[in-house]
From TrEMBL:
It holds the Pfam family PhoX. It comes from Photobacterium aquimaris. This is PhoX family phosphatase. InterPro entries: PhoX, TAT_signal. Transmembrane segments: none annotated. It comes from the Bacteria.
Length: 623
């Protein structure tokens, strides 16, 4: 990168100590407010959140979902104090969601029996869109705002791109294969240059089961249906019974063919899941669209590459599972900057996200990489083309991971979020950990039993199929030996299991962690760190990686309460309000002040929440 292409941001806070409390921890001079915890009503159709788990499925349909994850702030009227927050709800904690769930083991051992209970669980999944405003230094949700809404595990959505309108997606519910119901396990997120939200369907396969014979594709992706996973993750399918309505509502989670054709059953139901889903937050009642061209797998995040007028729009997305791959989608349409403020945003999504080429990454020994296209004429490792195994692009996409196996992609240590440096265009990807890497490393995943994870980065090359990569930082306990602590981390920045990752427009990269290994967790809960990568240079002005000589540039900004993961990142356009999510805390929040610890001996019903960080003097965050 040229010097002119570098961030001028200078981090202006002291790295904070690790923390092990039921409170969040931030640098001095900052405040942290709890905003929109699980169960907060969006409108008058929901009763107030009750501390005993007795809210109904109808309340949950009109209130914030559970387990907040990725999110994005969409300003209204170009304001930094008024906007729409889109929030993912990854999964649920049945113990917190329902009253008396301790008896779960007895009540739900074999089959689920309570319809409202399952509806509530489905409604606690998905996305919330909420209008928020800053007033007197305090963010609040605008109750009953017409743009407030939920997309749940049952909301009707359009399918778009190569898999839509094919026999792979025909179901009783959607005989023409044009629609799917619900979005599940929405973990990471993205957003588009044209003002829409992208939500990523991650661990959806386990929600489905096939009590008959799993297909090759279902086996590859890990749909339930064998051994101890004979039932779906929450056993929703067990409520189907023989009644037609229940079959439609809950039986759809069982993919076993029950009739003569796919129009009689839900064998194709899961083919409507596993995608990047686009939502136009600014348009009420607009249906979400599943962008199938970007591949079908456990999408963690979805990040667009640095935009250039007249060049394709590129999206990156990792498949978060051990030994899975990194993908890139490149649009056929070339970027037209006037598309950044369209009258119909989802039309622009159609233009850039439905037609293009999906690639999977191979990381070579010599710091180069190759993007391998996934098309019918792509060469496989055995010298055939993918056309020898697949009949259509739609078939390739439905079994994206299986096609990627055949072309020789590099198995990674759980690709999570990616982020793009707004100055240099370099792309960063968290590889959270992989304790099952027992006997074969590869250059991009060089540690056996990778408990602590790392962050890899790359620059696109001259052609769409080339890139150059290096490893930016290795997670490690500060007392790890040389082989482990390869980046020279100290007590003030040791971390493990990098997961959430984001750049703000000033060039600051924010790194969030999920389930740090014991060696780090004995010193600190999950956290968020900051660094300005484009300022890390050697004598020749070449960008370098984190090492013992510059590791102080990686600073710990935030530590979450006990038991949580820190995930989701967005910042207001004026950089004065930074939003992150606390997912699955043990015993928090205690009050509106996120830094107030739950007193020992007090037990609160845990609620995932957004936390808004501001500066006491009203200045920009981090600098
Ligand atoms: Fe839901 Fe890959 O974290
Ligand atoms: Ca994650
Ligand atoms: Ca994770
Ligand atoms: Ca999580």
């Amino acid at each position: 990168a040229k010097v002119a292409d570098r961030s001028q941001a200078v981090l202006n806070f002291n790295s904070i100590s690790g923390s092990l409390t039921d409170a969040v921890s931030i640098p001095s001079g900052y405040t942290a407010q709890v905003l929109v915890p699980w169960g907060t009503p969006l409108n008058a159709s929901a009763n107030v959140w009750k501390n005993d788990g007795t809210n109904t499925s109808g309340d949950q349909l009109n209130a914030l979902g559970m387990h907040h994850d990725g999110m994005h702030f969409f300003p209204l009227n170009q304001q930094s104090t008024d906007g729409l927050l889109c929030i993912n709800h990854e999964y649920i904690d049945q113990q917190a969601l329902h009253p008396n769930w301790e008896k779960y083991a007895e009540r739900a051992k074999d089959v689920r029996t309570d319809i409202d209970e399952i509806r509530k669980e489905i409604n606690a999944h998905g996305i919330s869109v909420v209008r928020i405003q800053l007033e007197n230094n305090h963010w609040k949700l605008i109750d009953n705002d017409p743009l407030n809404r939920r997309y749940t595990g049952a909301t009707v959505m359009d399918l778009s791109g190569p898999v839509a309108h094919t026999e792979l997606t025909t179901t009783r519910f959607s005989p023409d294969g044009s629609q799917a119901r619900g979005t599940l396990n929405n973990c990471g997120n993205g957003y588009t240059p044209w003002g829409t939200y992208l939500t990523c369907e991650e661990n959806w396969p386990g929600y489905f089961t096939n009590t008959g014979m799993r297909t090759k594709e279902q086996d590859r992706i890990g749909v339930s249906g064998v051994g101890k996973y004979l039932q779906g993750r929450y056993k929703w399918e067990t409520l189907a019974g023989h009644d037609d309505e229940r079959l439609d509502e809950f039986g759809r989670f069982n993919l076993a063919p029950t009739g003569n054709s796919s129009l009689d059953d839900y064998r194709n139901e899961a083919n409507g899941h596993g995608y990047i889903v686009e939502i136009d937050p600014y348009t009420k009642n607009s249906r979400a669209k599943k962008r199938t061209a970007l591949g079908r797998f456990r999408h963690e995040g979805c990040t667009f590459g640095k935009l250039e007028a007249g060049k394709p729009v590129v999206f990156y997305s990792g498949h978060d599972s051990r030994f899975e791959y990194l993908y890139k989608f490149e649009s056929n349409a070339l970027w037209d900057p006037t598309d950044a403020s369209p009258s119909n945003r989802l039309d622009i999504g159609d233009k850039y996200m439905d037609d293009g080429t999906l690639y999977v990454a191979r990381f070579n020994e010599d710091s180069t990489g190759t993007w391998l296209p996934l098309t019918l004429n792509s060469l496989t490792m055995s010298g055939d083309t993918l056309a020898s195994q697949f009949n259509s692009l739609a078939e390739i996409i439905v079994n994206t991971a299986g096609a990627a196996d055949l072309v020789g992609a590099t198995p990674m240590d759980r690709p999570e979020w990616s982020a793009v440096d707004p100055f240099t265009g370099s792309v960063y990807l968290t590889l959270t950990n992989n304790t099952k890497r027992k006997d074969s490393t590869n250059p991009a995943n060089p540690r056996l039993n990778n408990k602590f994870g790392h962050i890899i980065r790359w620059d696109e090359g001259e052609s769409p199929t080339e890139f150059n990569w290096d490893i930016f930082v290795f997670g490690s306990p500060s007392d790890g030996d040389e082989k482990t602590n390869r980046s020279g981390l100290t007590d003030l920045n040791q971390f493990a299991s990098p997961d959430g990752l984001a750049f703000d427009a000033r060039g600051i990269m924010w790194i969030q962690t999920d389930n740090g290994a014991d060696e780090v967790e004995q010193y600190t809960n999950d956290q968020m760190l900051a660094v300005v990568p484009s300022q890390l240079l050697d004598e020749d002005d070449k960008q370098v990686v984190i090492s013992s000589s510059n590791q102080t540039e990686l600073k710990r900004f935030f530590v979450g309460p006990n038991g949580c993961e820190v995930t989701g990142f967005t910042i207001s356009p004026d950089y004065k309000s930074l939003f992150i999510n606390i997912q699955h805390p043990d015993n928090w929040p205690y009050s509106d002040d996120a830094t107030e610890a739950t007193p020992s001996g007090t037990e609160v019903r845990p609620r995932s929440s957004t936390v808004v960080i501001r500066r006491e003097d009203g200045g920009e965050i981090g600098v």
